[in-house]
Amino acid sequence: MRPAFLQRRPGRLQPLLPGLLACAAAVVTALAVHLALPALPAMTVAVVLGLLAANLPGVSGWSAGSGRPGLDFAGKHLMRSGIVVLGLKVSVVDVLGLGWPALLLITGVVLAAFAGTYGIGRLFRLPPPVSLLIATGFAICGASAIGAMAAVRRIRQADTVLPIALVTLCGTLAIGVLPLLIGPLGLGPEAFGAWAGASVHDVGQVVATAQTAGASALAVAVIVKLTRVLLLAPMVAAAGIHHRIGSDDGGKLPPVVPLFVVGFIAMAALRSAGWLSPAALGAAAVLQDLLLGMALFGLGSAVRVRHLLRTGTRALLAALASWLLIAALGLGAAVVLIPGR
Predict the structure, then answer these.
(1) Max Cα-Cα span within the chain
(2) Would you put residue 299 in left (φ > 0), alpha (ψ -120 to 50) or beta?
(3) Distance from C-alpha of 266 to C-alpha of 257, rounded to nearest angstrom
(4) Contact status, residue 68 vs residue 37, Cβ threshold 8 Å
(5) Using an 8 Å Cβ cutoff, are 287 and 85 in contact?
(6) In terms of pTM, does the model score above 0.70?
(7) Cβ contacts of residue 58 below 8 Å, gap of 6+?
């Protein structure tokens, strides 16, 4: 006789399979598009494919019906797994190599961007949870940061869809707009890389933006961006502490730092120890893309464009205003970090 847990598992997995298989197919497609068109980050393509699945006749009914359990599972659990693996991108040694003045400056930019974006969201009368998630995603590291903040503040997964759509839109906008400003602003490659790293949201979007100015720009951009990513854990912990102080949920409170954020910290420590080979880090980067790509497809598949157009106009204006604010803050930081430009 089969053990009880083996008897139950097929029943639990079967409803998830259609959605998870669609997520896997979508992320493979997104990675193929990125290989063919490197300027398009795979994560952005994954979100767009999710939007198409949610809104095209013939598949929209499936994404809202039989595919929904697996798509929701990917949006929540695979997102958290991807955040853990994201820690392997962060080398504390490389970040500290910037020097304490640069670290303090980048931290100041992140805090100012977070506070400013949250204030803009409230100015446009967005709900506090939506303003919080938009501020987190714009200031730190895009969709990954939104997923982490939503978990620690117990914000519904459905409420993460709009912030993720906005951070994807504005990050994609940066890929097209920022390189056009190199000449008018008189920026050298390193200064442009610092600007991209300090102001573009997602890691993939930073790479796509900075590589237009060459290898030296990309190297600076990645280090500055990963410094922002490193702030994910303390920002989430601070939000968790604030939530516990102001909450009356008693024993239902989530942990100050979710387990997957602890995993992120552990992976960053492992990377910083220098024990992993380049091959292992390369495999981890592929795994991260697969996990986050599947998660973003699942989240994108919950966005109904008609609903977004009815309810998201103020949010779109707030996001664009926030994008301009962060671009200005990042440019100021880049000029200070690379004085000769």
Answers:
(1) 74
(2) alpha
(3) 13
(4) no
(5) yes
(6) yes
(7) none
The number of beta carbons lying within 10 Å of the beta carbon of residue 123 is 12
CB neighbour list of residue 262: distance below 8 Å, 6 or more residues apart: none
Token code pair at residue 162: 């709009």
* Contact indicator for 299, 49 with CB cutoff of 8 Å: no
Q: Per the structure block, which two tokens stand in for 255?
A: 């942990």
* pLDDT number for residue 3: 47
What are the structure tokens assigned to 118, written together? Answer: 């949250």
54, exposed or middle or buried, with CB in 10 Å at 0-12, 13-18, 19+? buried
Contact 72, 66 (CB under 8 A): no
**Residue-level pLDDT at 303:** 79
Task: Give the DSSP H/E element, type plus range, for residue 172.
Answer: helix 161-177
Backbone φ, ψ for residue 99 (5° rounding): 95, 150
C-alpha to C-alpha distance for 241 and 257, rounded to whole angstroms: 9
* Other Cβ atoms within 10 Å of 60 Cβ, number: 15
Report which residue type is found at 339. P
Q: What is the mean pLDDT of the chain?
A: 88
Between the two ends of the chain, the Cα-to-Cα distance in Å is 71
